[in-house]
Design a protein that fits this description.
This protein is mostly helical. The chain has a domain of 117 residues: AGR C 984p-like (AGR_C_984p-like, Orthogonal Bundle), CATH 1.10.3700.10. It is 65% helix and 0% strand. The chain has 18 helices and no strands. It is globular and about 50 Å long.
Length: 273
């Protein structure tokens, strides 16, 4: 009989697939999020944010408080735009009530979401007293942290988690085309070559409409099947991940291991043959 080290060396990486790693996180998402929320850095930043946000009463004060501003931007997946403070000030100053506002003119829905929550343009000083700007933003931050950490071990798991969160909100193929991560999942699941992105945007949207119905993503079972297809095809193209993702996210070791390998591990004695 092989030793534990031999099983880990020869069998584990082939068993812990993208699909298994994704399931280990998503099967008990509440637990996964709780584990992430308790991580020292995440807990520290969340505590500071909650203690500070209600004291902020204007767009200028919000952007000036760099630690709070960075936290909020990360919570909405806008970490790569933290530097663009003039841009974000325009998003927040004009708000979303006016259909012609800056945020409403942008194809990326993240800016509109951000301006809806931090609605200084409409709510003024009371903006930061709402539940959405407080615990709602903390919940978003923790989810973003969970997805980013999953991506450090397996980008396919990060994409699957992101798709599971965002896909039910998609209302048209344009919503997929406007989001690079969503598009990558769909291209992988439907075997659409990246070169297709060179086509006219309307043609791309029409082609997607022929291949899928975005309304299906509101059905949990159909969404799950689509994600399973994505993780399987991602695995075929990118190879197996390590178990580090599940371990880093505080998942039980067995969550990412095949049943037969788990049984073998349980029957082995340390140092045995």
């Amino acid at each position: 009989m092989r030793t534990i080290s031999a099983l880990l060396r020869n069998g584990w990486s082939a068993v812990v697939t993208t699909s298994a790693s994704y399931r280990s996180v998503s099967a008990d998402l509440t637990r996964s999020l709780g584990t992430t929320a308790r991580q020292p850095q995440v807990a520290r930043e969340s505590k500071n944010y909650l203690a500070s946000i209600e004291k902020i009463k204007s767009v200028d004060a919000f952007i000036k408080n760099d630690r709070v501003y960075r936290y909020a931007m990360k919570a909405f997946g806008l970490e790569d735009m933290i530097y663009a403070k003039a841009f974000m000030k325009k998003v927040l100053t004009e708000g979303v009530v006016n259909s012609g506002s800056f945020a409403n003119s942008l194809s990326d829905s993240r800016y509109k979401e951000f301006a809806k929550v931090f609605d200084f343009a409409n709510l003024g000083e009371s903006t930061t007293l709402s539940e959405s700007t407080r615990q709602g933003t903390v919940d978003r931050y923790v989810r973003q942290a969970l997805e980013q950490q999953a991506g450090e071990s397996n980008e396919g798991v990060r994409l699957a988690l992101y798709f599971a969160r965002k896909a039910p909100e998609i209302t048209s193929p344009m919503g997929i085309l406007a989001d690079k991560a969503l598009l990558q999942v769909v291209q992988t699941a439907l075997n659409i070559p990246e070169a297709a992105a060179m086509q006219d945007i309307d043609k791309q949207a029409a082609n997607l409409a022929k291949r899928l119905d975005v309304a299906d993503f509101k059905d949990p079972k159909k969404l799950d099947r689509f994600i399973t297809r994505f993780t399987s095809l991602w695995e075929a193209s990118n190879g197996s991940s390590s178990a580090a993702g599940a371990l880093a996210l505080g998942q039980p070791l067995e969550a990412g291991i095949g049943a037969s390998l788990l049984a073998s591990l349980q029957n082995l004695k340390l140092g045995g043959n």
